[in-house]
Amino acid sequence: MKILLAVDGSAHTKKMLAYLATHNELFATVNDYVVLTVQPTIPPRVRSAVGKEAVDSYALEEAEKVLAPVSEFLLRHGIDAKTSWKMGRAGETIAQFADAEKCDMVVMGSHGHSALTNLVMGSVATQVLAHCNVPVLLVR
Questions:
Q1: Dihedral angle at the C-alpha atoms of 112, 117, 122, 125, nearest 10 degrees?
Q2: What is the CA radius of gyration of the chain?
Q3: Contact in structure between 107 and 129 (CB atoms under 8 Å)
Q4: Is the sign of the CA dihedral 47, 57, 88, 63 positive or negative?
Q5: Which stretches make up the UspA domain (predicted)?
Q6: Which residues of the chain have pLDDT under 70?
Q7: Amino acid 140: pLDDT
Q8: Residue-range domains of the chain with CATH
Q9: Are residues 130 and 96 in contact, defined by beta-carbon separation less than 8 angstroms?
Q10: What is d(CA 94, CA 4) in angstroms, rounded to the nearest whole number?
Q11: In terms of Cα–Cα distance, which of 118, 135, 117 is closest to 127?
Q12: Please, are residues 83 and 35 in contact by the beta-carbon 8 Å criterion?
């Protein structure tokens, strides 16, 4: 099974990884893992003011801050996962990436906001659920 781990570096990512580590049926070396983090898109005016290379360099640095600890955790558990990062709207980007990579499941932490907050502001988890064509496991 190919499992996409959507991570953002928050405490919710750590909870998700702890959950996986205690559930051998999901956290097995026979599965293939892809770790993805999504960086927010920089507004075009900012991009033009500071330059594309500066923006891309900044986004890469921020992505590495999120991906490095997750990769280390997985390696300690004998899992050599592929890592990737994208820029865009997180929920839609995660769902599109899962389709493009032909993942069988998406696993991610959930911040657990209220229904009212989701209605007003939206939520990455809600967007992933709305756009994803594969099962999504949310860990709270």
A1: 10
A2: 15
A3: no
A4: negative
A5: 2-140
A6: 112-122
A7: 85
A8: 2-139 (3.40.50.620)
A9: no
A10: 9
A11: 118
A12: yes
